[in-house]
Amino acid sequence: MKKNLPIFLSIFASLAIIAIISILVIFRASETKIDKTSIEAAQKCVADWMLEHRRETPGGRGQDNTWTVGAWYVGMFSFYEQTGDLRYLEPLMAMENTVGWKLGKRPFFGDDQVIAQVYLDIYRIVKQDPKIIAHTKEIVDQQIAMPDPGLGAHTATLFEKGAWSWCDGLFMAPPMWARLALVTGDAKYLDAMDEKYWKTYDFLYDKEEKLFYRDSSYFDQLEQNGQKIFWSRGNGWVMGGLARLLDVMPADYPTRYKYQALFVEMAGRIRELQQSDGLWRPSLLDPASFPTGETSGTAFYAYALAWGVNNNLLKAADYKQTIARAWLALINSIQPDGRLGWAQPIGQDPKLVKAEDTEVYAVGAFLLAGREILNMK
Fold it and tell me: Which residue from 116, 237, 268, 312 could staple onto 171, CB 3.0 to 4.6 Å apart?
């Protein structure tokens, strides 16, 4: 039996390659048509590639509760909900053993809290075991009791005290705090989140451009064309975070209308900045300096805009072509081996990308986008 194992593995690998190629043919042949078969084929292809190649991807090398893996797992749980396929739930349930349902190494840092979105979704949908959310609740209770650190330069001195001083953090932490309020029935978590959210909005949002600076270090910086620097994935984090937050916020929450208004305002601006190939460029206001499209930001925009249509915040007639172009561009960014390419690596500002660049968080956003587009009427 052992002698035949290499032959078996070789045959299995060959069949896997054939399957991936077949899937690619299905959805590349559907470039003028978006349907259930092509969407799920693309999602499965990209998800399965990352499951197999996680450790070869920089953001996938760390523990399960790092922010990169956490953002991927958010999409993975969504894909499990969509398909009911336990293969996509198993790595998430294994976190009981890999990280003990704990937050990251710096638990008050918003990035190290994103994984708790998955814990809380598992708790409310799969298994109501108090151990799953115990550490999350303990840390957020401590954070609420801490003095407000204020806002300023995005440094460890500040963000490790719980300040949301960078726009990415609006995806990482607020949707988790809102989920904690939902599963505990305690509005204090939502109220504390609400206060912190609008302080960050006042600090980082440019009301003229209707976009978020990544952090305060970009307030006075300009791109080569003289425009302000607004990072695509950074604003994608914000819009994706708004969708994730509004998904679980009570319909009668007093300030819900403010989140909805911000979402609609940003959506209109983002729609204007989509390029002709369907992708957004790493620098939203200077596409010429970064001429190649970028998929992590694009995937978050596709997800958020489709969510907005599905939840009656955006008119389908105004956004369906924007969403369709984005999705088809994402599909065309999938490489022959199944990886989602053209994804900007870990960073904080616009950078050039290549076809072979991929990341776990980009796959998470892609899976979220596929589900919402599948749900569009």
Answer: 237
